[in-house]
Design goal:
By secondary structure, the chain is of the alpha+beta class. The protein folds into three domains: about 5-50, Uridine Diphospho-n-acetylenolpyruvylglucosamine Reductase, domain 2, CATH 3.30.43; about 60-165, Uridine Diphospho-n-acetylenolpyruvylglucosamine Reductase, domain 3, CATH 3.30.465; about 165-260, 2-Layer Sandwich (Enolase-like, domain 1), CATH 3.30.390. It has ten helices and 14 strands. The strands form four sheets. The chain has a five-stranded antiparallel sheet. A four-stranded antiparallel sheet has the order 11-12-13-14, with helices on both faces. Strands 1-3-2 form a three-stranded parallel sheet, with no helix packed on it. The radius of gyration is 18 Å and the shape is globular. The mean pLDDT is about 95.
């Protein structure tokens, strides 16, 4: 580790102001950033902790029937308090281990947009809206590739609004060493259609499987996926599994998610 300054603002406005300093970086739960600092892959001069901002913590319901999660809310709190969206609560309850769930935050996960993280699949499958200090971004426009989002410099996620589906389930094939998803699939059925989001598989990060959505709109059953397949060329291939293997897992995990949601 190296020497750096640490500031802990109590309001969103103070956090935004602190992030205007040169080489300042936002710090959520630190589950990704702190290991990165230890390896000196990033060396900001100032860390701006967001966990002390009360207005960015907690889970509530909006007048529109959305589950609203503050950007600095730990995964464990989502697991306990997002009961109106069981699929989301269950997803949060299986992220990492207890230490990670009590430190990691929703906003930190979505801002980092790790290609194997769970929350991007939840946000994309539910058509969530990401609220920042400056604007609102719909999930379909927010995710722009591996570790890449629509966030601009100094912009922080203050809240995420998840529309509650009629049925949903997140199925994850766990990479046992990291507890990340080797492949994870979130299926969410709404009155206007089904959304399927896949994490852990693609070289482009989280994505929607349009062919599966079309098949499930016609027949919300795992059998609807029988004639579908994905190619492995654009899938991640590493020591944990080839692209073809991950493509196969996408179909298997989607089928399991549909069966459990139904």
């Amino acid at each position: 580790m190296y020497n750096f300054e640490m500031t802990r603002p109590s309001t969103i406005a103070d956090a935004v102001k602190a992030l205007q300093d040169e080489d300042a970086q936002a710090l959520g739960g630190g589950q990704t950033l702190i290991p990165t600092l230890k390896q000196r892959l990033a060396m900001p001069s100032t860390l701006v902790s967001l966990t002390g901002i009360g207005e960015m913590r907690g889970v509530c319901m909006s007048d529109a029937g959305e589950v609203c999660v503050g950007g600095a809310t730990p995964h464990a709190v989502v697991a306990r308090e997002a009961s109106a969206f069981p699929g989301l609560a269950a997803l949060a309850s299986h992220i990492g281990d207890p230490a990670v769930r009590n430190r990691g935050t929703v906003g930190g996960s979505l801002a980092n947009n790790d290609p194997s993280a769970c929350y991007p699949a939840a946000a994309l499958a539910s058509g969530a809206t990401i609220i920042t200090n400056a604007r609102e971004i719909v999930a379909d426009e927010y995710f722009q590739g591996m570790f890449t989002t629509a966030l601009e410099e100094g912009e922080i996620i203050t809240e995420v609004r998840f529309p509650v589906p009629e049925k949903s389930h997140y199925e994850k094939f766990v990479q046992p060493a990291s507890r990340f998803a080797l492949v994870g699939v979130m299926v969410a059925k709404y009155a206007d259609g089904v959304r399927v989001a896949v994490t852990g598989a693609s070289e482009e990060g989280v994505f929607r499987w349009a062919e599966a959505e079309a098949a499930l709109n016609a027949n919300f059953s795992a059998d609807a996926l029988d004639d579908l397949s994905l190619g492995g060329d654009d899938m991640i291939s590493d020591l944990h599994g080839s692209g073809d293997y991950r493509a196969h897992l996408v179909k298997v995990m989607t089928g399991r998610a549909v069966s459990k949601a139904a």
